[in-house]
Design goal:
Distance between the termini: 22 Å
Largest sheet: 7 strands, mixed
Number of domains: 1
Number of strands: 7
CATH topology: Aminopeptidase
CATH class: Alpha Beta
Helix content: 25-40%
C-alpha cells in the first residue's frame, strides 16, 4: 500500500473494470482534445487481448479502481527510439489514471510500482512512449525523472535506467 493505494495483478475477471477505467480516461481526454481518443482500438477488444499477453497492474483505493498500467518484459532492440543498450527492459504501456484521481500523486505511485516490478525481474530500464498533446503526459514523465530519447511526429519516447 502506498498513500492509500494498493497494487495487485489483474485477473480476467477485472477486465470489465479496466475497460470502464479506460473509457473514463478516454472521455476525459476527448474533452481536453475535442474528438481525440488516447487509444485507437476500442477498450473492450484491446483490454481483453492485452491482458492475456502482458502483466496488467491495478491500483485501487479502497474498492475503487483508480489506475491501471501494463508491463511487458522485453529483451533486445526496441523500436525506432535511441534507447540505452541494456540486456533487459520493461515497456510500460497504457497507464491510465481515473480523471477523479489525476493530479493527486497516483500516477507517480504507479511509476514507482512499475519500477519495483521491473527491478524484481532484473530489468535495467523502463521504456515507454506517449503522445505529445495538450494532456501533457510527456511533461508528467519528464517531471518523474524519465528521460526523453526521441520525439518523432506526435510520439515521445522515454526511458528510465534502473
Amino acid at each position: 500500500m502506498h498513500g492509500g493505494v494498493t497494487f495487485t495483478s489483474a485477473t480476467p475477471r477485472d477486465a470489465r473494470d479496466v475497460v470502464a477505467l479506460h473509457e473514463a480516461v478516454a472521455q476525459h481526454f476527448g474533452r481536453a482534445i475535442p474528438g481525440a481518443r488516447p487509444w485507437r482500438v476500442p477498450p473492450e477488444a484491446r483490454v481483453a487481448a492485452l491482458m492475456k499477453t502482458t502483466e496488467t497492474i491495478l491500483a485501487r483505493e479502497g474498492d475503487s479502481l483508480v489506475a491501471s498500467f501494463r508491463l511487458d518484459p522485453a529483451r533486445g532492440f526496441c523500436g525506432v527510439a535511441r534507447f540505452t543498450e541494456v540486456e533487459t527492459f520493461v515497456y510500460l504501456l497504457e497507464m491510465a489514471v481515473h480523471p477523479s484521481h489525476q493530479r493527486r500523486g497516483v500516477g507517480r505511485l504507479c511509476l514507482e510500482e512499475a519500477e519495483r516490478w521491473a527491478r524484481a525481474r532484473g530489468a535495467k530500464a523502463i521504456r515507454l512512449d506517449t503522445n505529445d498533446d495538450p494532456v501533457r503526459a510527456a511533461a508528467f514523465y519528464t517531471a518523474c525523472g524519465y528521460a526523453e530519447v526521441l520525439h518523432h511526429a506526435q510520439t515521445v519516447y522515454f526511458e528510465r535506467l534502473l
